[in-house]
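Onboarding guide, step 5: your first structure request.
Type a short instruction followed by the sequence, for example:

Predict the 3D structure of this protein.
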Amino acid sequence: MSKTVVIAVGGNSLIIDGDHQTVPDQYAAVAATVRRIAGIIEKGYKVVITHGNGPQVGFILLRSEVARKQIGLHPVPMDSCGADTQGAIGYQFQTAFHNEFRRRGINLPVATIVTQTIVDRHDEAFKNPSKPVGGFYTKKESEERIAQDGWDMVEDAGRGWRRVVASPAPKEIVELEAIKRLISSGTIVIACGGGGIPVVKDTRGNLHGVEAVI
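The system replies with structure tokens like these:
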């Protein structure tokens, strides 16, 4: 019976340096990572890949803020940022695996699962947001965001003001059964990007995304 290994790829590891932050640059880093992982798969291991997304979420938030200032476009919620990065990074891994498997003569399916992670709506982290996200703001801009959007803002070592969000503890992976079934079928799975999209259950058991990070 083949063993299953979980490989965690840091979001920062997909950005080599400040001069290599573009989407093609990140794909090149993914492809280099996949070449190493393919060697593990050739040895008979089942593989599940998870990845960070901190810098990528930051880029989305910065683009959102620029669009908001210039043309009044609506901001992107944190849960949507997480979903966007899971899809985009997962797509890059799927493409890289397809190409690497083709080169090596490996015939295995690869799938990305956009993954939700349930957190406790009463987690103390929501009372004390501490995780910085996005770019820097002036004091005036931070006051506007607090008044208009209800953001929590903190001054960051003299560099400006930044938004902070909660980082609650993960409780349950919503798509866990789907992930298990895919692994059992021999599929290479990319899942739980960024720790999963933080969601809470309401009193009826319905899920709702929250402004937080895992």
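Each response can be followed by summary notes, for example: The first strand starts at residue 4 and ends at 9.
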